[in-house]
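name: query_chain
kind: protein
chains: 1
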Amino acid sequence: MGARVPRHDSDPIAPPVTKTRLRMQLEAAVLFAVATLILTYPLATQPSSLSRFDNGDARLNAWAISWVSHQLTHDPLRLFEANTFYPLPHSLAFSEHLTLHGLLAFPLLTLSDDLTLTTNLLLLGYIWFSAFAMYWLAKTLTGSHAAALLAGLFFSFAPFRFNRLPHIQMQLYAFLPLLLLSLHRFLLTRRRIFLVGLSAFFVLQALAGTYLGAIAAVALSVGLVTLTPFARLEGRDVLAIVLSLGAAAVLLVPFAVPYLWVNRELGVEWDLEGMASLSATAWSYAASGARLYRPALEVLLRGREVTDYLFPGFTVLGLGVVGAWDLARRPGRRSILLCYTTILVVGVAVSLGPRLPLYPFLYEHVVFFRGLRALTRFGLLPLFTLTVLSGYAISWLFETMHRQRTRRLVAGGIALFFVAESVTLPYDFQPHADEPPEVYRWLAEAGPGPIAELPFKVIDTRYMFWARHHGFRSTLNGDSGFIPVSHQWMKIALQRFPSSDAIALLRSLDVKYVVLHLPAFRRPTLLRILRTLPDHRDALLPVRDFGKELVFEVVSDGETTSVQATTDWQTLVVIEPHRGRGEEGLLSFDIELPRTSRLRAIRLHYGSAPRVPVERVEVLGDSGGNEGPETRFATPPDWPAVSELVLGLLRTPQDGTQTVVVEDVWEHRLRLRLHGLDGEQPELTTIELLGSFSSSAGL
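structure:
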């Protein structure tokens, strides 16, 4: 598999072999291409009809790729203004933006107009490229062609990749080895071109995925801290590194700003306790999804807390230990050992999340770590380190063998055992063709305006996959790891469709069409909807019947449904809910105003996460007799309570409100009764009475 390459202990990186470099690289490219075609079976043979789109994350990623590919050529400055979660801005930043994937997909989508084929070709290309990138790093570090070939095989075909096939944003990690390769080459040669490569590869890795950007940042930080002290850098070299990192940061600023806005305005931030469920455990590193070990491991790990499958296999683990031993005994290479073992330790520590102190520290001091949740993905760093160390182990092993035939047999045996213990063939792909239902092609030609697709499950990507077929028109629907509270309450309102509350919400958001996907409803729910639709002919106009889909146009009532302006109203009194009398399903307050006042509106505040909103409001006043207080105002039975809450959350996401505009009520003393949704007691933060003071009633 390659000629023996001499080792030079005085240099941390072996000098490159120049005579046969092109032939070796061509051999590596062909070998990895063949391995990709074989070890992804049956995907490589049917890329336009098989997929993992049975998984919601895969459909979400496919939508993001198609959106980015579309938007980069239509309106790149509004890249993050995606068509989902209407009418909230920056909705692409609710999940990973996948900009690089969308850019790479553009020519494929343009030529094929097939999103299934495009994503599969990208996936196959990423697998090949990751192997080739690790080959370059291992070849540069060890000087051994055979060791580099095996390292590329380990890095790109380990179980870590195939456990995450639906997550295409975790498949393109080829820039991680190229990033470290650039750092090594700069420290060895002081050539600035390698700093350009370092910056470029870091930016590309960050644009491939948010998690991969964080993983690359960790690896680069460790590399700088552990390698530069041994490099005897001059001041201008340090300045060049700082400038290159600064340039990378500047290039990434436009992609970071929307996430910072979403974090600040919508409160997108995972708490440490919630991260624990998606962090690795010690037992996760003993768990494998490979068929060879699964039966034994299921017995061993029964009853243990396993959150992911991170066992790299005995091949990579054993060779990694040998490689560490080989580096430890060579003084000139101990900086390499320090760098990569530190990357391994830090990667494991971060993947364990709040179980160890490191991640809470990063969470507290680096804002972007607050938006990460699936911390088991940092398990890529231990695999990366073990792969590099394995390259050194194989290089040392081949140094002890003088016969080419022996080296070839050993390399083949290592490769076969690695494949046997790591790869699960055939993979479980599902039939899926990019053939949209007819309704989406009709929507592409229909009049403009947002749509709502029902059933509205919020986290449901079945509809998003077809978005490019209706021109990416705005939709209330969406999916991401973060679901805005406003849309969580939309779900509750639209579950009652076609109720007055649901229709009021659709009208207030200027929704043009409602698409009912009939097979997706449970039979009792569907029968209820079909039975009650005729009662709302004035609001819902039947437009098209596609058999499995019905389309209704939302007819405006000609009136604005937004809350009246309240800027000229004073705050009469602010009430704290705990001072009210709690009864079954309601809160009651006896209120005494400073003097007789004109009550114009009641604003109910819920904070950032409403739990039980008010469904009905009553204002009672003193009747002047012995009959007790009489009703001065009450919301009508069809008052759109949930719709008002949704609108309040869209206006002020950190403080959801309902504003009830009342008829003129003049009172000095009144009783306020608030009935909770579905008979539960309302949960509020404050209650604000708005109006104007007057010295005489009725004026």
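note: Residues 69 and 110 are 9 Å apart (CA to CA).
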